[in-house]
Design brief:
Blueprint (H helix, E strand, L loop, with lengths): L8 E2 L8 E13 L2 E12 L7 E4 L4 E7 L2 E2 L6 E2 L3 E4 L5 E10 L9 E5 L2 E5 L19 E10 L5 E4 L2 E7 L4 E12 L6 E4 L2 E8 L5 E8 L8 H18 L7 E7 L6 E2 L4 E5 L12 H16 L7 E3 L5 H19 L2 H20 L11 E2 L8 H18 L1 H15 L2 E3 L1 H12 L8 H4 L5 E9 L4 E9 L14 E9 L2 E2 L9 E5 L3 E6 L7 E4 L8 E4 L3 H10 L3 H20 L6 H10 L6 H7 L5 H9 L6 H18 L1 H9 L10 H18 L4 H12 L3 H14 L2 H15 L3 H12 L6 H9 L9 H14 L1 H4 L5 H13 L4 H7 L1 H4 L8 H12 L6 H12 L1
Parallel strand pairs: 2-12, 18-19, 19-21, 22-24, 25-32
Antiparallel strand pairs: 1-23, 2-3, 3-9, 4-8, 5-6, 5-9, 7-8, 10-11, 11-16, 12-15, 13-16, 14-15, 17-18, 20-21, 25-26, 26-30, 27-28, 27-29, 27-31
Helix pairs in contact: 1-2, 2-3, 3-4, 3-5, 4-5, 5-6, 6-7, 9-10, 9-11, 10-14, 12-16, 15-16, 16-18, 17-18, 18-19, 19-20, 20-22, 24-25, 24-27, 25-28, 27-28
Amino acid sequence: MRDGAPKTIYRKDYQVPNFTVDEVSLHFSIHSGHTVVTSKLALRRTNATGSLLCLDGEQLEIVALKLDGRLLEASDYQYDGSQLQIDGVADQVLFEAEVRIQPEENTSLEGLYRSRTMYCTQCEAEGFRKITFYPDRPDVLAVFTVSIEADRQQCPVLLSNGNRVESTELADGRHRAVWHDPWPKPSYLFALVAGDLECVSDRFTTASGREVDLHVFVEAKDMNYCGHALDSLKRAMRWDEEVYGLEYDLDLFNIVAVDDFNMGAMENKSLNIFNTSCVLADPNITTDAGYQRIEAIVAHEYFHNYSGNRVTCRDWFQLSLKEGFTVFRDAEFSADMNARGVKRVEDVAFLRTHQFAEDAGPMAHPVRPDSFIEISNFYTLTVYEKGAEVVRMLHTLLGHETFINGAKDYFSRHDGQAATCEDFVLAMERTSGRDLAQFRRWYEQAGTPTLTVSGDYDAAAECYQLKVKQHNADTPGQRDKLPLHIPLAVGLLVEGKPLILSDDSTTRLLEVTEEEQTFEFTQVPSAPVPSLLREFSAPVRLDTTLSGDDLQQLIAGDDDDFVRWDAFQRYASEVIEGLQSGAEVPAGFLDAVSGALVLDMDTATRAHLLTLPSEEVLADRAANTGQVDVHAVHNARETLKATLAGAFSEQWQVLYDAEVPEPYQPFGEQIGARALKHLALDYLCHATAPALEQAEQLFLAASNLTDRLAGLRLLVKCAPAAQRESALAQFYSDWQHEALVVNQWFTLQATRPSADAVDSVQVLSESPLFDWRNPNKVRALIGAFASGNPVAFHREDGAGYRLLADAIIRLQKANPQIASRLCAPLTRYRRYASGIDLMRAELERIAAVSDLSQDVYEVIERTLSG
């Protein structure tokens, strides 16, 4: 354990900085082995008291410091390795620094570092301080001018934010480019790329007729993989104009694909830096889901141009102000580009699987946190996904037109400023005229609320009463929580058909604001089945008394895609839980599946509907009532799958045999057709041995990665060892030259649901195919194993826990961010009866590491003390 606990930072302690920066000039002289950074900051006092200048700076070798041209002696300042302090500074001053850094040695992938053929930056949240001295906080906005100098042969491309205003040839084969960004920005949005890259270009004409040049910079080998990203970018630009009235504000937009990157992508002003996995696309290296993910992430980073860049965060506690809002925006974009119901189901499934677990664990925190030790630990699903749901609830409560007007008011009023979550809600209050005081509790209170819902029907009065109770359990540091303002969208099924409730709509929006409320529905001709939380109108858990027959009616007759899917998930979950207790599969559930197989719906919706709840979701349900028996959950789920496979083998075969149009297109009906085909084959492989031959044929004959992986995944899971290893070897032999495909190969082996998968992962981690310095490979192998293979991770001898702990210890100094994120499966150790002591022992082993990184320390300390 580290000698002293790191300092906790509290939102309540926020103060404006003593000095702000109006303009900054940066010069980078890049050489092999080191880079010299020269900065000039035009500083201005913002605080009337105190002349102490504090600038952040980590791992910087000072060459020279100046104030208004005067060279500072060592006695004129104090530098402790993380902060530079200079006392007696005038109200306005020019500060200059020359420092030396070593990007080639920077394994944290924060600040300026080298990745393969390029130098690049990642400055969010606090990476800029690893580049030069600066008030590295989001509420200091300045105009940047950046000069980059490097060897032309090694770094022919030199990029930064804004517009290139100069390009000059220098002596000794070097060259220089100067970039100027006219829009004030915080240091976390600074970006630089220098390397040997090729460019794929396009153009976009804005609504006002301006021409914008679009460029994607990649390594030469990836030139043919950029078309989908560019098309996605243009669709996002047009959508933002049409829906929000927001037009791009520069004449140039650049994207760079980087192989070594901790995040998915980064919205640096006009120079977005992307993980290669989030920008490169081709049918042979990208799945259907990958294509949709790229479209969403390209849109997300572009939408940040306003919700994050033009209006940024006052402090990092307000992170969801930009991230939650922008996740909502990209989800709405994806829904408009694809199938809205399917998109909603996918988002809810992800939220329930991952964010609900975060809310139920020791790292639970509000959408707007109250404190942190390391801000990188709060780039969480609560901030992003739950934050987006909070924004969606505002959209639901206010209506689309009023919400958009509120967003426009927010952008207009705070353009060029660092804002807060409160500013966003105030904008919604101004345009709607509504009091949202109680709604603000969504930003303040952690945890997932539970709505307990029951109904009473009075046949004589034709009246139906819906009784709703809300409760939010205690979370770390928060007890006795106040009622939230919860939008509950409700419908009623009468004799299996949706009832019109108002304005030709089958939905009525209830506003739950009290601990207990009763809502009345009149002119209901017979006892209804309630259709609850339509379109998942709030991020809550539902506790209902719906019977199997009720759920079957919802599956067969509801007109809300989410409710239909949710009803199947609930029914299947209850059946799996019954199997664990020795019960049989009820006839009513088989009837529900039989009916779902012939429902009139699109293929993508049907594929989602007929997919059994994941083991993670089942574990989350079990954890609400006790501790989880991972292996019992797995076995019961497999039993149900085998039962459905045998009972409906003919229907699954018909679905598998259905033709999918050619040529391959990663859109619409084709995606749904492939998803349904693969689901049917999955069931068949649990029923008949010949289905494995079909899986092998799908694998060998596939013309795209989606089909190829579907066949291989079933071989890896279900086939005998010799057949499995032969297929894996064939796949690697064919695709070893494509790093993104090799990552899929890692994941398939890491997630094989067998105890000996632990040994496979250990062997792969020690092979030359694996690179501990590359986050994508770490996530594909170690991360996928720990979070996606409960059977192997929870092996009874604790080998899975040891493997993960070893990886965390190995990475915690080299790349603290990645190490910290790997901790998540261990933080839930109290859930698991069989592994609780073994998991805690591994947590204590990590805690005992000397000089533990701040990122990992915070997670482990909160877990052990929670």
